[in-house]
Structure formats: structure tokens, C-alpha cells
Amino acid sequence: MKLHSFVAAEVESAFAAAGLAGNPIVLQAAKNADFGDYQINGVMGAAKKAKQNPRALAQTVADFLANSKIIVSAEVAGPGFVNLRIQPSFLAHGIQAALHDSHLGVTQSAQPQTVVIDYSSPNLAKEMHVGHLRSSIIGDSLNRVLTFLGHRVIAQNHVGDWGTQFGMLVAYLVAQQQAGRADLELADLEQFYRNAKIRFDEDDAFADTARAYVVKLQSGDEQVLALWKQFVAASLKHAQSVYQRLGLKLTEADVMGESAYNAMLQPTVDELINKGLVVDSEGAKVAFLDEFKNQDGEPAAFIVQKKGGGFLYASTDLACLRYRVQVLQANRLLYVVDARQSLHFAELFTLARKAGWLPENVRAEHVPFGTMMGKDGKPFKTRSGDTVKLVDLLDEADERATALVRSKNPDLALDEAQHIGHVVGLGAVKYADLSKNRSSDYVFDWDSMLSFEGNTAPYLQYAYTRVSSVLRKAGCFDEQASVVLTEAAEKQLALALLQFEDVLDNVAQSATPISWQLIYINWPLYLAVFMKVVRF
Ligand code: ARG
User: Fold this and answer.
1) Rounded CA separation 151/483 (Å)
2) Number of neighbours of residue 187 by Cβ within 10 angstroms
3) Domains of the chain, earliest start first
4) 381 φ/ψ angles, rounded to the nearest 5 degrees
5) How many Cβ atoms from other residues are within 10 Å of residue 251's Cβ?
6) Ligand 1: does its nearest atom lie under 6 Å from the Cβ of 158?
7) 114 vs 111, 147, 248, 501, CA distance in Å?
């Protein structure tokens, strides 16, 4: 149920009755339940415009609202706020309907969109590391929420699988195959990358081979391509195992790497040239964007093709955006990518709009997130200063959480403690991310994320376990009994549950699955409790 819209409609008509039609009502869910369920803040602004006394006007609005079927009280407060309380029978009715609805009372979007979400998107020339964690978690949450609301979500894993490093990696793979060690080496990808780089830096003949492979790869040499495929497959298998551990929805079918756009790059650049959007600048093809001026007032240079004909990250993103709009028929594009790429996306979208590849009715949004910091305030690294591998981080989460579980329940069998430790550890890592403002940097701190107090995963999971046990003890109940709300806490719970759809809409609109909004994702749990509490 869209509770907010229901209440807003009542307030709109009270505004109209009071002669204030057209003024913004500014309706908000109340922050403090002692004062009411909702608060209207729009009367003051309207009074100022109409040159009327705000409190008197607020009283007129409140009087009209008193006739509403869904509002039980409307009280004027402060300089002209109106505090509302919703009729308990209306809430009870909503809960009753939700109880018997397999979709939890949430309506499917009346205008379902095709939403392409670009997330995770690691560079395959590296093992997955903590830098990929936020994109993966936030992107997957958005995928789930938008799907639940009835949109058609197309996940796209824009892996970096193309470019000069791959010549080096393929050359190294060949050398290892010749030595009969390829499988062994591929078993530890991080080591593989490191060894390839060392060889590249130290062995000139190898470096030459590597460069020759890049050329062969880009000109479509079958043999080199086959080797490249072998390497990419091993790397993707690794990524997929991480996704599985994280419980993500991403599958191999969602992979649409940079290489997939290879054939579209030149035509994309050519079209920009034909449209006069790109000019030759010192041999490179560049779009000068007046919208992004530097301190000296010069337009930003968005390079789409390098001197010598090579393509870049930006060229691929242009071809990719066209593909998402034209082939995937997206109405909305979300790019869940590090905040440090904000300028790239702003320029990309601007150029794409100018080229006519991003029609007005298609929304393109960079969904930025901040850097994961260590407790020392610097980007999260291992003690020796290396980037933290994602598998190591998840192992550590398991270990720490299992130790915690065992310390709280010394009698628990080891395998059970490990199982719970796994659930708690993974929950802690995911929730620590989602409970923070996504666009700012956040401090990754094991102690606070594994704490049983505060807004943490262990706290929620613990509450869930307690509640489940209460429910088990309570036994069965009468499905047909009607919901009656009498206690203040019951009404508050019902109100929170019925705001579920508003919260999901908010998450979907703002592409921000964070903190207080996420609390409501646990609503089936609250609802279960509620059913028991209210009916016994
Ligand atoms: N592979 C890139 C990186 O690791 C992220 C790609 C994001 N998606 C995109 N369409 N540019 O930074």
C-alpha cells in the first residue's frame, strides 16, 4: 500500500478546501511518534504567500482533515505545523490485506521500467578485492528492490577483460602451458598476475611477445583469442565463486565485458565525428565539453580515441551506453561505480545526450559510493600495505564471527558455530556497507560491525532469532481472525509495516538502499511478530 500517497491525497483536498490548492503540502512521516504519525509542513509557506496568519490557516486545514475517514486527529503545533494520526481501523485494514497477499501488500509498479544496473564490474586483470565489495552489495540490493517492485532489471557485469594487460597475461599463460604449469598457476590468480608482471618487467623478449599478443588480440587472431578466452574463463570462475559466497544474484549470463563492445567502438567514434561532436586534437579524437570548464575556463576534453587509433575506457562506455538503450531497451541506466569516477560519468552522459543516444525519457544515473577506509582513516589495506583480497576478507569475517559465536555459546558444536558464524559474518559485512550513507567514505571496522549493539547485522539477526523462538513457542494461530489495534505500540508497528512500500519506492527512486530504509526490509519479520502479538 502506498500509505504516503493515501495520506497526501487527504491533505491535498484539505488544502483545496482551505483555498490553498496548488501549494506544496510538504508531508513527512513524523520523526517522533509522541506527536503523531505524519506532519504537514506546507501551511507556513502557503500562509506567507497568501499573507495570512499561519496558525489560523493551519487550524482551518486541521478542521477539514477532521472529516477524513483515514485520519483520526489533526493538531496544530508550533508556528503552523499540523500533526496527523491515522485511523487505527484503516491501519488494521491495511495489515489484514497485506497478510493475505503473497506480495506483502506491495503493489507492482503501474509503469514497469527496464532498468539496467551496472554493478560489481571488476577488472579481470586483478583478483577481486575490497574495492569491488561496495559496488557488488549496493548493486545487488538495488536489483532486488527494483525487481520486487515489478521492474524488469537487467544486471550487467561490465568486467574489464580487454586492453594491454591481457597481452601480458596471455603471453604468461602460454609460457606456463609450455612449462606444464598453467593449471597450477591459474589456481592462484593473484600470484599469476604478479608473476606475469615481474616477467614482463624483467624479460625483454617476453615483453615483446606480450606486446605482439596485444596486437594479435585486437586484430582477432584466433589462436591468441582462444588463449585469452581461457584466461578470462578462469578469472570469471573466480569472480563467480565470490558472488556465490556473497549470495549475489549475479550470474555468468550477466557478464557483458568491455571486450563485447570491441566491434562497436570504431562505428561509435565515427558517428561522433560525423555529428561534429568530436574533433581531431594532436592526433586524438576529442569531444570538448563546454559544460565542464576547468579553472581557466577551458572546456573539458573527453578523449574517445587515442593517437594511433587505440580506444579507451570512455570509448567502450559510449558504445556500451548505446547498446543498453538501443538493444536492451533500457528506460533507466544505473552505474554503481566508485565516486571517483563521477566526472567520467557526467561527461559520458552529456556527450551521449548530445549524440542523441540518450533520449530525454531515459534516465542515466551514476550511483556513486565512497571508499572503504581502515580505522587509521586511510584506504583499507593489509598490514603490509597490499589491497585486501575479497576472499580473505570473507574468510576473516567467518573466523571472527565464529569466534564470537563460540565465546557467547561455549557449548555449541563446532560445525553449528561455524554455520552461524558464517551467517553472522557475511551479514555483518553486507549490512555494515548498506547501513552507511553510500556516497561518503566509510570506515571498515570489525569490532563495530560485529557488535551486538546498535544498528548492526548481529543485533538484527539476534533479534530475529529471539522473535522466531517466541513464534515457535506461541504455536499456531487463527488465520481468519481480524486484526484489531488497541495499544500504541501496535499502532506504531502497523504504521511502520504499511510504510514498507513507500520505503521501497524511496530506495528505488534515489537508488539508495541505506540504514533506516533497510530496517523495513525486515518487515516480514515484524509482521510475523505483529500477527502473533495482535491475535493472542
Ligand atoms: N572495471 C571498472 C573499474 O574497475 C568499473 C566499470 C564500471 N562500469 C562502467 N560501465 N564503466 O573501475
Assistant:
1) 31
2) 11
3) 3-86 (3.30.1360.70), 165-254 (no CATH), 257-369 (3.40.50.620), 457-535 (no CATH)
4) -135, 170
5) 12
6) yes
7) 10, 10, 20, 20
CA nearest 113: which of 324, 319, 369?
Answer: 324
Q: Is the pLDDT of residue 524 over 50?
A: no
Quote the Cα angle for 24-72-77, to 5°.
Answer: 55
Q: Could you read off the pLDDT of 85-111 as tens digits, one per residue?
A: 999 999 999 988 888 888 888 999 999
Q: In angstroms, rounded to a whole number, what is the distance separating the alpha carbons of residues 385 and 381?
A: 5
Would you state the pLDDT for residue 477?
A: 66
Chain-centroid distance of CA 151 in Å reads 15
What CA–CA distance (Å, rounded) separates 127 from 172?
16
Asked if 334 and 511 touch (Cβ cutoff 8 Å), the reply is yes
- Amino acid present at 356: G
Summarize pLDDT for 345-370 with one digit per residue, the tens: 999 999 999 999 999 999 999 999 99
Percentage of the chain exceeding pLDDT 90:
65
Separation CA 323–CA 260 (nearest Å): 10
- 185 has pLDDT over 80: no
Q: How are beta strands 152-156 and 81-86 bridged, if at all?
A: unpaired
Distance 258 CA to ligand 1 centre (A): 9
**Spacing, Cα 351 to ligand 1 middle (Å):** 18
Ligand 1 mutation target, pool 341, 349, 371, most atoms within 8 A of CB: 341
Structure confidence at residue 30 (pLDDT): 87
Q: Tell me the pLDDT tens digit for each residue of 157-171.
A: 999 999 888 999 999
Among 122, 104, 113, 9, which Cα is nearest to 65's?
9
Say yes or no: CB of residue 347 within 6 Å of ligand 1: no
Instruction: State which ligand 1 atom lies nearest to the alpha carbon of 118.
Output: 8
Phi and psi at residue 217, to the nearest 5°: -60, -45
Q: Which amino acid is at 157?
A: N
- Grid cell, residue 210, equals 606480450
d(CA 508, CA 306): 38
CB of 285 within 6 A of ligand 1: the answer is no
